[in-house]
Amino acid sequence: MWAVVGAISASKDNITFSSEMEKEEQKKKKKNNNANDEENGKNSDNEEEEEEDGTKLKSDKELDLGPQYSLKEQLEKDKDDESLRKWKEQLLGSVDFSAVGAESKDPEVQILSLSILSPGRPDIVFPSSFASNNTKASLFTLKEGSQYRLKFRFTVSTNIVSGLKYTNTVWKTGIRVDNSKVMLGTFSPQKEPYTCELEQDTTPSGMFVRGSYSARTKVLDDDGKCYFDVSYRFEIQKKWPSPT
């Protein structure tokens, strides 16, 4: 009987001890979980703060473009810095302020013409007025596998235009098949037109590439100001079109 009572008592003690141990373990786990949650919360806050700081820094860098100056103001600015003065003189050259209008802070770019040059073929020249042509007819036809290059003629007035670039997007049956961007450069105002020829390219070839395409061409600067925006259609065929 005592043995039985002892066994029961021992069992009760073990149960009580186990319960206490479980309680202690649960307390420790809860404490550790809380500590981990706090640490994770701090880390998350830090990450959010770092992300916010990074975003703010990035936004500040993107938005802080600095004040704009007219051409005359730019020439007067930093007179004592010899390297800057020489760079400006090299960039501007002999600018006739009366001819280009040096009082405005915004540059003006006028696209005079866009040409397609292909060896052994007459140049295909489009005046700036074709930008207002919204016809659905094909504007020109290129032979598959032929070499060509684009040429722009344009004028710059009133101020320096920075980071002038050409973008072109092409679709076939509603699917985008090409998206290109080419930097033209930075140009000072002058009365005479500028001419920029892009690198030579080759039209694709094969029966699957023949047909009608739609395209959109833009010329814009690094501030996002657009000076030329035209949508048009063209074709790629097995042969050049017959002369008219």
Automatic annotation (TrEMBL):
Residues 13-77 are annotated as: Disordered. The keyword RNA-binding does not apply. One of its GO terms (biological process) is Rho protein signal transduction. One of its GO terms (molecular function) is Rho GDP-dissociation inhibitor activity. Keywords: Cytoplasm. Residues 54-64 have a biased composition (Basic and acidic residues). One of its GO terms (cellular component) is cytosol. It is found in: Cytoplasm. InterPro entries: Ig_E-set, Rho_GDI, RhoGDI_dom_sf. Gene3D superfamilies: Coagulation Factor XIII, subunit A, domain 1. Belongs to the Rho GDI family. This is Rho GDP-dissociation inhibitor 1-like. It comes from Davidia involucrata. The lineage of its organism: Eukaryota, Viridiplantae, Streptophyta, Embryophyta, Tracheophyta.
